[in-house]
Structures are given as structure tokens and as C-alpha cells.
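tool_call: predict_structure(chain=1)
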Amino acid sequence: MILNSQEASSHPVGGKARALAKLGQAFPIPAWLVIPPDAFQLLSDEQKQAVVEGNFSGISFPESLKNSLMQHLSHLKGQLWAVRSSALDEDGAQASFAGQFDSFLNVPTDQVPEHVLKVWHSGFAARSEAYRREQGMTGGKRVPAVLIQRMVQAETAGVCFSADPVTSDRTRCVISAIQGLGDRLVSGEEDGQTYTLLDSGEIEKPGNPILTDAQVQQIAALARKSEAFFGMPQDIEWAIEKGQVFLLQSRPITTLETVTWWDNSNIIESYSGVTTPLTFSFASRAYRTVYRHFVRMLGVPERSILQNGHVFDVMIGLVQGRIYYNLSNWYRVLGMLPGFSINRRFMEQMMGVADGMPPELKVQTSNGALRDTLYLLRTVAGLGWTFNQLPGSRARFYTRLKKQLGVRKHLPAMSYGQLADHYRTLEAELLNRWDAPLSNDFFAMIFYGVLRQLCSKWLSDSGGALQNDLVSAEGQMISAVPAQKLEEMASLLRSEPGLLEVFQQGSRAEILQALGAAPELQTQFHTYLREFGERCLDELKLESLTLQDEPEMLARMVARLALTPPVAHDARARREQAEQIAREKLSGWRERLFFWVLRHARECVRERENMRFERTRVFGEARKIFRSMGAQLVKMNLLDDPEDVFYLTVDELLGYAEGTAVTLNFRVLAQARKAEFEVYRAQPSLPRRFRSAGSVYRQSLKPAGSSSLSSTERQGIPCSPGVVRGTVRVVRDPRTINLSEPTILVAERTDPGWIIILPLARALLVERGSLLSHSAIVSRELGIPGIVSIPEVTAWLQDGDEVELDGSTGVVKRIRRAGEGQALQEEHA
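tool_result:
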């Protein structure tokens, strides 16, 4: 009836005893035994009732059980004992029962039997019954097993959590310590001292510590070892006797919340500031589909994709109206890819994740490093086939685009149901078949990264300046065409002085009417609106107004260019010089391999930007569909304003046409959301990266603020060479900026809508972005010296500050604050 530590593992003895049995296989723990719950049946009915009521007088411990108990205790050679519960449903993953059962310390051997009765009684106590009800437990065993363990005569004792139980941070190990036995700490009689060991090795400790740093590390190592042993964070009790750390018990931490990391380093280029519900729901649908297709393309088994469906469904989140990557899920998806364990940092650099994977975030790969490498080699063969098919895949993609967007439909004439059908077709034929852009983007990342490594290894190009020159001035890049067209219109406007004032200040009607007097300019103006009118600031946000909605914005930009001399850059010459350097330093197979990689890097980067333009056209068609739906809902008296459609979701809009709507009260929905999002717009921006324990909406998020960075110098990612010295202009909205001369532009991020101002840039300094972001690609193509990913540059610099930047090294130096001293003559090298 009494079980020793070896026998206990195969019997129902409760969570605490099971844990000790497992721990005994890997840890030195004080000797112990356990009395199973069935021993309670040795009592008579009267004795059982007395135990339930807590009336211990007159209860005699069953003689056979007592004799067996004393014999076992003598073998364990202890003087004092800990007598505690081990209930069958105690210390589980969902409920710990901490403090619900009685425990007794320093019990002499002859008093152990009576304390066993007291532990049995605690199973029937009112507090344990209330706890069961609170946890939703019914029908569980009331009588606990009784664990009897040799008492450690501790000089110091306490508890240790292998993860912070308050913040759920798994990089922090939290220890509470007290001199003597730990019962006063566990019971709450004393607070004890708190120590925190960080993953970095740093120890946060109180004044006059009772633990040495070595002891803190030993205790934390014991907790982490227990966590690894059980496969989940643990709450352990420990004691130090004669310099040795003992593990007394270990149970799961039941209070930990799921931790999620959020980051907008890369996605803010597409979705800056507050984004409406319609745009978020539209983007979320796209990410859900695109990432599934991405991993499928890279050889992830379909079973793994199905098992991780919840991960793909939450690739982005909406926090106070702002879109963030769910970074935890992003890394889980990358962890599914073959080769993740050996190329994670390479992929982070190409994807623009500035800080890498948080130490707390543990991503499990399915194969381990060795098998993952073999898996990667197998996948490479499949990627070779995909690469060979890429030209045909691009051609089929453009064919589908031409079929769907080649014939412009008169959306205002369509019924609501026809608009829904048109959207479903757009989604099925284009949005859900983004295979060519996905494949091309992946190979752009690969070839660009390989080219970077070859330039560094073979051409001693450690800073990336030579590589950036090699991929600049490619030509045939659609993103550079608008700049050329704008300059052509500005040149025509200079010869039409009578139109200049109208372009600067006239209304839309006045501008369109005045264009009749300049046929060539009129043709180019309307051609630009037709071909590039969907390109606008925040062009992927469906609520954004395009140049087709505001043609006067195009006129204003052309007027500014007409009044400003064009900025000349020498990107073509630098490209040719870089090629010459490569040919001089390389020969034989190295030269052939290098220029093969270069050719494909150029091609994929060019097509990446060109396909992004096509994405703009697809999003533009979706924008028109939803606006037309809004107009229809106003006619049906379901909305007050067509623009209110952006405060509904895609599912809600389609649901009205398809019979799946859960409410028809669109007006109230839109009004409530508009009011909520107006509050978000009035709030300061949020941090670039943060973590949430549990629901992100329960977190208290501090606004993004300046850190303790250098006041005179910043280091970013160089993306387009050139040294420029001059004053800066911080641009929040390129539509409202008024420049009288070329200047150094400073921005938080850019998108294709910035093309209306980039021709006036002497250089470009951007807070966000990566080597393959729009800012980097376009600055290289236009030959504008540029640096991206500069920490807090929009807060650090202000209009009129004088800086010197080097687009080859990524270094920006502030020479003079605005208004300090005499302005220095600008230089451009």
C-alpha cells in the first residue's frame, strides 16, 4: 500500500508524486515515499467521516498501514519529514491547486501518521471545494495521495519560476529566496528576496543579497533543466543544505499567457499610420493566401500547412488601427521552411526585419540542423525547376492581368451582386494566384543576397557600395518611368507660362479646361493619369485617394518641377565603373558565375518592382469595386456616405450579396468604427516592435519615443552610393510639401506615391526599409544617394539641419542644427 519512489511512477499517486518520480530520474532530490489515495479505504466509515469533519481525536491510524509506514521511513534514514498532498488532479497544466491542500514541515517520525490524516482532511476542506468549482472540475478525486519526503535542513530556500509568471517572459528566470525553510515564503508569511536572471546572464538582485551569483545561476539552471525535462515552464521549490542545491518539487506554471511579438519594420512601407477595417481585412485575406502558397512553393508538405492553418490565418494584426506583422507567426512560418536553421539571418536581412528574432521566441524546426540541411538540398532541386519556369510564370501572370484589367468595366452601372461577383473573380484569378510575384520575389532575395556575398568575398566590397552600383540604373523599371514622365511634362509647362499659375493654384475644373490650350501637355497629362493614376501615397490602403481622384495633385507637382532645375545623378556611369572593377578582379569560372548571378539579380529586382506596379493596379481595381459598393449601400439607405464603406470588412460586404451577413446594420457599424478610429488617429505612433502576453488589446503600449542614440551620428543600411552634404527637409506627406529647390529628403518610409517628389531629392534618408524595399530600389534606379533603416531619423533631424551622408557606408552625420551659425556651402561629391 506504500510506494517508494521507483514504484510510484506506475500508480495513480497525483501530479506532485508523478513529478517527483520523473525528477528522480534526472535530479538529486530528497528521499521520499507516497501513500496512495486507496489507503484511505482502510479506515472505517466512522473514521472516514471524522477525517472529513476534521475531528482527529479518537481516530487510530490503521495498524498495518502504520507498521508499513514506519518500516519505509526507517529505510529513508530521516529525522524530520515534509508531509504534503499529491492529489490526482493537482499540479496539472490547467490547475495547480497551489495552497489548497495542507502541507506540514519538520514533522517528527512518530507524528507522521496523524499528519497523514490531516492531509487527507484538506481534500474535503471548503477552500479546495471552492477551487474545484472555480476551475470547472466535477467528479474529481477528493482524497489526495500523501507525499512524505525527508526534510532538508535548509540554510536558504525558496521558489523559482523558469519564466516570469507576471509578464510570461521566458527569457527571465525569477527566484524568491528566504533564509531557513521556504514554508514562510510559500504560505505568504514573508516576501523574501527576489532575483531575476536574464538570458543574457545579467542578474537583477536586491541590496544585501542572501544568495551569491553562483547560487542564483545554479537555482535558475535547475529550473530550466526541469522545464526542459517536462517540456513546459516550471515552478520549482528548492533548498540549499550544506552548500548543495536540492530540488524539492516541480510543477507547471499555470498562469503563463501566450506571448506574441509584433513588428512593423517592413510592413509600414505599405501600410503606414492608421488603416481602415476594410483595408486590414483585405490585406489579411491576401497574406493568408500568399504565405500558404509561398511555403508550398518551397516544398513544405501539405500536411504541415494544414496543421498550421491558424498560423497562416494570423500573419498580420491590427493594433490601435495600425497594421503589424505577427512576428511570432512569421517566424513559425519561416521555421517550416527547409534550411531555416542555417539561413535565418540571411532571410531576415532580405525581408527587412531590423532586430532579428527575439531571444524569447523559440521556433522549433521539424528536422534539426543536419536533417534540415538534407531537406534543403532536396528542395533546391525543386527550386531549380521553379526558377527555370519563372519566365513562363511571369508571362502567364501578365496574361491574366491583361485579361482581368485590360478591359475597363463601368462599375457604377453594375448591381451590388455584380460588383461582388467581379471582386470574387479578381480574387480568384489574381489575388489568390500570386505565384509569379512570389517566386520572383524569393529569387530576387536569393540572387541579391548571393551577389552581396560574392561582392564582399571576391571584390572586398564589405559595405555594399559596389553591389549597389552594379544593380542601379537597370532601365525598363516601371517605377522610374513616372519620374521621367513628370520631367517631360515639367519641360512642356516651362514653355507654357500662362498655364503655370493655373497648375499651381487652379481648381480641378480650371486645370482640365486650361489644358485644352496645350494639346501635347494635355495628352501627356491624361496618359499619365491613365497609366500611373493609381500610384499614390499609401497606395495599398484602399481608402487612399489616387491621382485619378485628385488630378490637381499631379498638376501641382508638375508645376513645382517646372520651377526647379532637375537634379542630375550619375548612376549609369557608376554602374559601368563597377562592372569594370569586377571584370578586372575576376577571371575564369569566377567571372562567369559572378556575372550570371548579377544578371539574374538585376532581372529579378527589376521584375519585383514591375510586378509591384501591377499589384497597385489590382488593388486599384479592388478600391473601385468597394467604392462602388459604398455608393450602392448609400442608395439602399444602409450607409450615410460612400466613404463609410471603408469601415466595413470584406466579409461583411460580400456577405450582403451572398447571404452570409450576420447583421445588416451597416450604418451603426460604420459610425462606431469611424469614431473609434478617429481616436486612434489622434494618438501618437506606437513602438516599432513590442510583445504582448495574452490579448494584445490588454497591453499598455507606450508611444514610440527617442532612445539614447548618438546626437551627432546615425548608421543605417546603405542602398545607393554617393556623398552629399546639405540641409534636410523632413517630409511627412509628399502631397503637401512645397520645395523651392532640390534638397535632402528625410522620411519615415516611402512608397510608390512618393515619385511625385523624388525628382527633387538630392539624397534620401529613410527610417524604415530594407535592401529590397521600394526606397532602396528606386533610389538606386534613379541614382539618388540613399540610406534606409536609420534609427529614429525623423525625430533626430528637423527641417534646416545640415548633414553629411555617405550612401556607400550608411553613415549620416549632423554637421549643424537648424539656425546654428552660418550655413555652409553645399557640396555634392
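agent: The domain at 153-256 is CATH 3.30.470.20 (D-amino Acid Aminotransferase; Chain A, domain 1). Proceeding to next step.
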